[in-house]
């Protein structure tokens, strides 16, 4: 009966190892360099979050740790749309009674420029153990253009990300085509017809 139990355990272990989809030791982590100068915060965070989770890889698993490292430089040169520099508020609580602290985005940019992009990116990640243990430490944000990971990224800069495109301007008015006679265009735009 001891041989049967030993055989059953080894068969179970063999079956477990053969059905394992992707062992963690085979994970290949790349380093991505992103220049945040003149990039919109939300669009840039929406580009960074899937890379941290590993959604761009064919070996992605929602319950697995398969994301890459992301190094963001020039975080002090990010941009907001509209009047968000003065209207957007960042709040945190100190833990003491009456300890709710509020800062405008412009004030936070002057004090901690990295935290604006960090809060936007982490807000796009699901709140679970993968985020806290694995994903957050792989996001490296720097206010200037200098960073200590040049040897990891390399000098050829082949892993650098392209800038996130801004909203495309179209020559349409409320979905009507260019040749529509009833459409009035603003004075600074010319008609292509």
From TrEMBL:
GO cellular component: mitochondrial large ribosomal subunit
Listed CDD domains: Ribosomal_L13
Record keywords: Ribonucleoprotein, Ribosomal protein
Highest taxon of source: Eukaryota
PANTHER family found in the cross-reference section: 50S RIBOSOMAL PROTEIN L13, CHLOROPLASTIC, RIBOSOMAL PROTEIN L13
InterPro entries documented for this protein: Ribosomal_uL13 (IPR005822), Ribosomal_uL13_bac-type (IPR005823), Ribosomal_uL13_sf (IPR036899)
Example of a GO biological process term: negative regulation of translation
Pfam families in the cross-refs: Ribosomal_L13 (PF00572)
Source organism of this protein record: Ditylum brightwellii
Descriptive protein name: 50S ribosomal protein L13
Family, as annotated: Belongs to the universal ribosomal protein uL13 family.
Entry's Gene Ontology molecular function annotations: mRNA binding; structural constituent of ribosome
